[in-house]
Amino acid sequence: MEGFITEPKEIERKSFEIIEERLSGCSFPPGSRDIVKRVIHTTADFDYADNLVFSEGVIDRGIRALKEEAAIVTDTMMAYSGINKKAVSELGCSIHCFMADKDVAEEAEKRRITRAMVSMERAEALGKKLIFAVGNAPTALIHLYDMVREGRLEPELIVAVPVGFVNVREAKELIIGSRIPYIAARGNKGGSNVAAAVMNALLYKALK
Question: Of 16, 23, 41, 167, which residue is the catalytic one?
Fold first, then answer.
């Protein structure tokens, strides 16, 4: 193992040092640099320095919601698994993914819509401030947009980072062009790992 870094904290420290060097001279909205860096750390993709966009004041709003024990709703079990549960617990928050629920699948099939759309509806009954972390399903974003427009939901924040080719760009731009607070990855890139990385960055900020 000579010549290799094997201590976990040192690996992470060195990784962020490399990222910071590459981002030297780049400017980001206030408070967003740590989020961009964590996404790059997760993906090794520096395109996110340009792709990630933030609505005005969204970081402070997200941190405040987390400190007020918000419920985090994800559109995949992968995003759910990647979000730091210890940080969630320390803040008194909760985290939910309804995608694998049998009744969600049954309802989606009956209504001929996606499970992600039905899952977003399940958040209505949580009775808490809501943060949505969407990394896979653009239909979740489209349905959230409609639910907000209908007055059914008032999210504190939507992390809009689904990956793919069908409806993806359009769904993200729908959120970006709305009054909904957002952190979004423009274009086709994104994913559940990106959604989790954004949420973890916000959680760590809220714990400081």
Answer: 41
Active site residue 96: no
Does 114 map to a domain? yes
Q: How many C-beta neighbours within 10 Å does residue 39 have?
A: 30
Which amino acid is it at 39? V
Q: How many domains does the chain contain in total?
A: 1
| CATH number, position 106 | 3.40.50.10230
**What proportions of the chain, in percent to the nearest 5, are helix, strand and coil?**
55, 10, 35
Average pLDDT by stretches of 10, the chain with 208 residues:
83 94 93 97 97 97 98 98 98 97 97 97 94 98 97 97 97 97 98 98 97
Burial of 101 (C-beta count, 10 Å sphere; 0-12/13-18/19+): middle
Length, in residues, of the chain: 208
